[in-house]
Amino acid sequence: xxxxxxxxxxxxxxxxxxxxxxxxxxxxxxxxxxxxxxxxxxxxxxxxxxxxxxxxxxxxxxxxxxxxxxxxxxxxxxxxxxxxxxxxxxxxxxxxxxxxxxxxxxxxxxxxxxxxxxxxxxxxxxxxxxxxxxxxxxxxxxxxxxxxxxxxxxxxxxxxxxxxxxxxxxxxxxxxxxxxxxxxxxxxxxxxxxxxxxxxxxxxxxxxxxxxxxxxxxxxxxxxxxxxxxxxxxxxxxxxxxxxxxxxxxxxxxxxxxxxxxxxxxxxxxxxxxxxxxxxxxxxxxxxxxxxxxxxxxxxxxxxxxxxxxxxxxxxxxxxxxxxxxxxxxxxxxxxxxxxxxxxxxx
Amino acid sequence: xxxxxxxxxxxxxxxxxxxxxxxxxxxxxxxxxxxxxxxxxxxxxxxxxxxxxxxxxxxxxxxxxxxxxxxxxxxxxxxxxxxxxxxxxxxxxxxxxxxxxxxxxxxxxxxxxxxxxxxxxxxxxxxxxxxxxxxxxxxxxxxxxxxxxxxxxxxxxxxxxxxxxxxxxxxxxxxxxxxxxxxxxxxxxxxxxxxxxxxxxxxxxxxxxxxxxxxxxxxxxxxxxxxxxxxxxxxxxxxxxxxxxxxxxxxxxxxxxxxxxxxxxxxxxxxxxxxxxxxxxxxxxxxxxxxxxxxxxxxxxxxxxxxxxxxxxxxxxxxxxxxxxxxxxxxxxxxxxxxxxxxxxxxxxxxxxxxxxxxxx
Amino acid sequence: xxxxxxxxxxxxxxxxxxxxxxxxxxxxxxxxxxxxxxxxxxxxxxxxxxxxxxxxxxxxxxxxxxxxxxxxxxxxxxxxxxxxxxxxxxxxxxxxxxxxxxxxxxxxxxxxxxxxxxxxxxxxxxxxxxxxxxxxxxxxxxxxxxxxxxxxxxxxxxxxxxxxxxxxxxxxxxxxxxxxxxxxxxxxxxxxxxxxxxxxxxxxxxxxxxxxxxxxxxxxxxxxxxxxxxxxxxxxxxxxxxxxxxxxxxxxxxxxxxxxxxxxxxxxxxxxxxxxxxxxxxxxxxxxxxxxxxxxxxxxxxxxxxxxxxxxxxxxxxxxxxxxxxxxxxxxxxxxxxxxxxxxxxxxxxxxxxxxxxxxxxxxxxxxxxxxxxxxxxxxxxxxxxxxxxxxxxxxxxxxxxxxxxxxxxxxxxxxxxxxxxxxxxxxxxxxxxxxxxxxxxxxxxxxxxxxxxxxxxxxxxxxxxxxxxxxxxxxxxxxxxxxxxxxxxxxxxxxxxxxxxxx
Lengths: 347, 361, 504
What we know:
The complex is a heterotrimer of chains A (347), B (361) and C (504).
Chain A: H1 2-18, H2 21-44, H3 51-76, H4 84-100, H5 106-130, H6 135-153, E1 158-159, H7 163-170, E2 172-181, E3 187-193, H8 194-212, H9 214-224, H10 226-231, H11 236-262, E4 264-265, H12 273-283, H13 295-314, H14 320-346
Antiparallel strand pairs in A: 1-4, 2-3
Helix pairs in contact in A: 2-13, 3-8, 3-9, 3-11, 3-12, 3-13, 4-5, 4-6, 4-11, 5-6, 5-11, 8-9, 8-11, 9-11, 12-13, 12-14, 13-14
Chain B: H1 2-10, H2 13-19, H3 23-39, E1 47-50, E2 56-59, H4 61-86, H5 93-109, H6 122-145, H7 151-169, H8 180-186, H9 196-214, H10 217-226, H11 228-233, H12 238-264, H13 276-286, H14 298-317, H15 325-340, H16 342-360
Helix pairs in contact in B: 3-14, 4-9, 4-10, 4-12, 4-13, 4-14, 5-6, 5-7, 5-12, 6-7, 6-12, 8-12, 10-12, 13-14, 13-15
Chain C: E1 5-16, E2 19-30, E3 34-38, H1 45-52, E4 60-65, H2 77-82, E5 85-88, H3 100-105, H4 116-129, H5 145-158, E6 163-167, H6 175-190, E7 194-198, H7 202-208, E8 211-216, E9 219-225, H8 231-239, E10 266-273, E11 280-284, E12 289-293, H9 300-308, E13 313-320, E14 323-325, H10 330-335, E15 338-341, H11 345-349, H12 356-368, H13 376-389, H14 406-418, E16 424-428, H15 436-451, E17 455-459, H16 463-469, E18 472-477, E19 480-486, H17 492-500
Parallel strand pairs in C: 3-7, 3-8, 5-6, 6-7, 12-17, 12-18, 15-16, 16-17
Antiparallel strand pairs in C: 1-2, 1-4, 8-9, 10-11, 10-13, 13-14, 18-19
């Protein structure tokens, strides 16, 4: 019997070995996320049993999902971008100033956000891809530049009062059939914010880009082995440039989604968001060394991180530091797991 | 011997000067000094006054540069070694300073946030904070050396968690130390008008130069940073040497933690040593050291640290707010990395050759 | 161009700083032939191929292709692919993280979208037709090296190439896999593809090739029909000695005889490392100079690396002067008085940015320990001593080693190891890529050291050198020891025939 068992587990291991790296790490992520969420439902009950809890997870993390998609893309291509948090803050501040102090309209403010993101992406991408400078140093400078610029644009945090914008911010998309009954017995509809719709669209577009286009596959090729990719006839420089450009664009979009969620501009907005985005990508199975990753995993990574933080605060560890420590511990854990899993697989 | 002398003078004095690693920081210093001189020489004024405790103190921009630049110089020592050995930078130093400072306060207070008396001698508390900081350094080092994670990603972990850990160590309380003994480290020793951090920096600098002279630290870290394979075949243990460089940086962090805490006698977890990692990396780069590792020049890094502080003070002078500083420094970083990028150097080489050919023609 | 010629390279020149890698090389490839490109390391084969595939730009010369008017310009691997030149390199140049099918098609089809279904079914077809045991959806990394190599070839073949370059494709394949590859090559040959085949395995050359072009020191030695060039003659051409004037120079070295009661300085038994060599036995006596010989890739370097502990040692024992010692890493070996000058001077030897002085003292400094650095004055004294002793040409002891010429770099590394005063010195290709004068210096030095009682193992691609210095040669082929020659057997023809193996 025991013999049989080892045999079965052997074939299971074989199957695991046959999985592509991307699918292997994705599988780990899916399992972890569901275990965690179900665990939270069982042990903490309450809010976790209501669908709205899940939708709130989306509402609060919509911006992060967009940022993490961009991060996954650069990481798959073998790079890194830590400027996204700073860009988010800069986008919020610029849009806030434009909408309130300059009386701009909402549509143009979206363009402002996209332009800022694209500018960062293009400049950083140029330095990384064509001048061959370490992406970390370039985007570290980008992060500090964005943060500094944010305070130069406006020092004080303030809420946006522009009517059209506030209407957009408060718009709710009702999810039919998922509502719940509150203590008074009233039925409350489940909802998501506009930002969530944007985030879902971004996830779908990015997923399709990476899965079903030649460009998407060349990101993987370049991340897997730059030299080989070159030999296989891929324009490596352009591919790396595009990865940063798209990541910058997504930082712009993510920045606007964030802005839409908080409705204010502040130099301290999105502090450490780059770190959350990187952590989510890594938890979602994107390899730091490049070439491996999946947008679906990234989405789950964001939700896993969000859930963990909810659990931590629901468990009474409300102090701010637990959030930071949990985050870092998750990142550390997954980095080491990746390093070990991949080292063992190589053997 | 004779021959060598002749050969040396053969070389153009100008090219030799330009090649010297001190050239860039010196040039930057000269440019900044000139700029400030034109904008108004009162920048360089130093006045002797007395502080609230009635001790004679020197004040003025140059003194502030010496004072704050010293913290940076101490960090630059460790950052130079880490850069040389691992080819990457530690971005968690600011967060680690918060941890070291928090440990120091916790030890001094012994749980009571407004202690009448210190719970232990400052030196003991400092040693404990050193050990903690070095352990965190070793943690970074292990991730880099054994798990082969890029240094900046590995240290990103502590970068995020550091300030939270610092808050957690003191239960998020802000202990205040009233004992004047602590204030000496970041302020002035009674009767001495020069800020103490400068002396601490001098001690650290002397210490590192003694270490570099009487041990093989310099040779080993450079060898590992330049050619890991070759170092291994020469009997070195590259992993161990990388970890050691991170541990030394941990020690530097603890010293800076002491100075920072001493300055305000308390701690602000989210503000203490904020963005200092950027300045430390800048100091190394400005000192002409390759951020990709290998050969280093410690003196140039330390000098670079003071030049960076000079830049900071210059920006302050023109009413740039502390929060906006990073934007300006980011520009400096980009300029530095772009001009030192191999592709750009190659391009410059080509252009100058073309230029010369044209001249001849 | 004549009808049956598909590719012609004329008078190709290529220089790198300090090296003239190709000096007026001609190369002609006909339709439907397998053409071996042979030569020892540094002969210029890979440079020639890289010029052809656009990795390097040539300084001079023309490349003519069937179907193109006048010389074609090839500036990148993509250009080469476009004109029908496909290359399969020794190191797999595929992306390990992608699926087999993607590796087959990425970078060479037009359009934006990725049609997985079509790609996978096309791939399955190709895999099946070429009998490659892999599935289209499998991740490349999970295939064996051999299969990966075949997939690379399948990709090249499917691109409808006229010229297929195989740069040492068989070094990681076993016999059956090689057989499959040959079947594939014959098939392509019959379809009229011209195949350039670079290999170090002589058996394979004689099994599959129609013609051989031999290169040496960046120059063309000649193009031969396979039937006109028997094995021994081929080896002699590659090594640069005409058979006719093989007067069998007997070396200047004395035949070594062990004194009674003496034990070997070093004795290795069943030593093996993870670098892919078969376990081997080896011994060396005091004051003896011996050598490992064999063609490139025969495992001669891996053997000495296994002795020194440079690769991960997986088995076997080592005795020094009769006592068993544990040598698992370089430091162990150094402590036991072994020194190793590595084959790859740039990658494993020099510490480029450090000065000549620091490079000289490095190994001894590590042996002395962390807390006992030599004083600056002492360092200069040592450096000057060795610079003089080995007549190293350097501006000063403080010059970075990377700015020295190859020969002088090598002397610095030699100085580094001599300064550790080793009992046993291993020199792996100490004379590669350096000028004749320095070569002679190094040979003389080796003999002098041996006469002073040092044991030396000397590895070189140049047989002359080995014969002049060594009193015993361990011959290797295909990663195992196949013979040991000493005394009267130490002559060119005997060594060559042992290296070549077979009956011819």
